[in-house]
Amino acid sequence: MNRVLVSGANGFVGRALCHALMGQGHAVTGLVRHAGGCAEGVREWVQPSPDFIGLDGAWPDSLQVDTVVHLAGRVHVMQDRAADPLSAFRATNVDGALRVAQAAHRSGAVRFVFVSSIKALGEADPGRALREDDPPRPQDPYGRSKLEAEQALVRFGETSGLDVVIVRPPLVYGPGVRANFLQLMNAIAKGWPLPLGAIPARRSLVYVGNLADALLRCATDPRAAHGRFHVADGDDPSVTELARALGRHLQKPARLVPMPTGLLRAAGRLTGRSPQVERLVGDLRVDISLIRTVLGWQPPYSVDDGLAATASWYRSTHLDNFTDA
Asked: Which residues form the NAD-dependent epimerase/dehydratase domain (predicted)?
């Protein structure tokens, strides 16, 4: 049995990870800013200070952990309203992560699993799936902050002896998903026409259950030591295929208009939304062969399994969109 601290334990991925850890018999403490929302059986530790300031001095003497999985952070948003987005991301994703790592190390933790993002490498692949050793080219403040956090944590691990493991997921989906994935389901469920009928670009995704399983392995498997791993479902649907599959599982066939990608790019330039359009029409595939080789990890759920579970949750929680179902 391992003693695992999960920051952001009451979040979308955090709850799934805590369930997975407890299912394997591990003792889990959730480090959260606000009380409530953690899975049943998780010991909750509430620290409301921003960016984990003062965490070291607040660490309870009774809290002993072997491993920390750091999920908490400032997440990527499409329209950031911060006056200086990069500074805001750095304060939480770089400085905050370092504070947790330093406090955990001083309290006896031996491994720190940092959940980064494929955005630390970039927004598109180079004509093949992105590998862990590809040169990083982050394109926005969020991606840059995640890369800087990786680098700072690795340096801290080298000087302190803390075993730092980096995990880079692409877009995460599953029951409880928010942001763009939820907006896509809303549009499909409402029968809105979408200009996604002729997009060949392939995008890696990871179902939250697959990510939780991989994080469990990275937290507890000795072979993961000092590793950097990409995690995904292992099957990269095109944007068109994804929309059609969601429509099938939502029992609301997607209304897809076959608009050429060149026209979509032109519309993006005219409207100032080129980054959003590129996320639809550009390939972003993730190579997961390293975690398969080193840890023997295989995604326990297929893409279809994940989409079915996500659509089932959506249908049960968004009944207003299915009045004629």
From this structure: 4-226
CA angle 172, 82, 173 (to 5 degrees): 10
| Inter-axis angle of helices 12-23 and 208-220, nearest 10 | 60
Q: Which amino acid is at 216?
A: L
Residue 279, pLDDT score: 76
CA 297 – CA 291 distance, rounded (Å): 6
Quote the CA–CA distance of 283 and 267 in Å, as a whole number: 19
Asked if 229 and 168 count as a contact pair (C-beta separation under 8 A), the reply is: yes
In the chain, what are the domains? Answer: 3-177+204-234+285-301 (3.40.50.720)
pLDDT value for 325? 45
* Token reading at 105: 């190390």
* Distance separating alpha carbons of residues 166 and 153, to the nearest angstrom: 9
Tokens of 211: 């990510």
Strand pairing category for 228-230 and 163-168: parallel
Q: What's the chain's length in residues?
A: 325
28 three-class SS: strand
Which residues are part of the catalytic machinery?
142
* Alpha helices in the chain, H assignment, sequence order: 12-23, 55-58, 85-89, 97-106, 141-160, 179-189, 208-220, 239-250, 261-271, 274-281, 289-295, 303-317
E strands of 119-258, at which residues?
A: 163-168, 171-173, 205-207, 228-230
Q: Are 101 and 258 in contact (CB under 8 A)?
A: no
Calculate ∠ Cα 131-289-2, nearest 5°: 105
Distance CA 175, CA 162 (A): 34
Q: Which residues of the chain have pLDDT under 70?
A: 76-82, 322-325
Q: Contact, 29 vs 75, CB < 8 A? A: no
Task: Please report how the helices 261-271 and 274-281 are oriented relative to each other, as an axis angle in degrees rounded to 10.
Answer: 160
pTM of the model: 0.94
- Reading the block at residue 80, the tokens are 């950031």
